[in-house]
């Protein structure tokens, strides 16, 4: 029995040796390819990051994938597989895969367009439909936003490319809009003057564009005034609107105008 086992091992040893060498060669090529892909993508990312972080991230991902594909093809070629036949099969399969993954490929194409056309970059505050937030990253397939309430929203690039994009960061200023309701028996023009004086003395309100105060609605019981004032992007929206409302309330209280209430407060970056 032992003689048969020894004979089998002696016959199998050359084959096992050959398989081991091929396996070692495959392992070495794949490991080298991985580290080459990692090195090349990181090096390019470091260089491009000085100019555009979004482009750097995109090139980093593309270069890594391309180098790894080349490494796999080299591996197959070294173990005796006819790569030309494989490439032909992959080409045919690629058409079927492209049809099956057309939405994903559309997102890739849209991601490239977003990077080239640059309607927004990382750090911009944007609105896409009903979603608004700060751009955290732009990847091949999707874009990540961080909303004002701390939620992370991941949007496919295809959806972004087909939507209207409002980039609030393109304008260095932001507009605060406050709607105030007053009783119909009060003099709206007098209250407008009081509000305008408050806005003129407020240090964070910009002189240009000029603040607006005017009537936007009325009926038999009430008059609605609208305040539109601009502040810098660096100013705190919440602090500024709170200070404006407090000062207006204090001035109106001094004049004995108590039947006044705030209807709505909005923040906008559009004129």
TrEMBL record:
SUPFAM superfamilies: Mechanosensitive channel protein MscS (YggB), C-terminal domain (SSF82689), Mechanosensitive channel protein MscS (YggB), transmembrane region (SSF82861), Sm-like ribonucleoproteins (SSF50182). It is a multi-pass membrane protein. Gene3D superfamilies: 1.10.287.1260, 2.30.30.60, 3.30.70.100. Residues 63-102 form the Mechanosensitive ion channel transmembrane helices 2/3 domain. GO terms for molecular function: mechanosensitive monoatomic ion channel activity. Pfam families: MS_channel_1st, MS_channel_2nd, MS_channel_3rd. The chain crosses the membrane at residues 20-41, 62-81, 87-117. The keyword Cell membrane applies. The keyword Transmembrane helix applies. Residues 103-170 form the Mechanosensitive ion channel MscS domain. InterPro entries: LSM_dom_sf, MS_channel_1st, MS_channel_C, MscS_archaea/bacteria_type, MscS_beta-dom_sf, MscS_channel_2nd, MscS_channel_C_sf, MscS_channel_TM-2. Keywords: Cell membrane, Membrane, Transmembrane, Transmembrane helix. This is Small-conductance mechanosensitive channel.
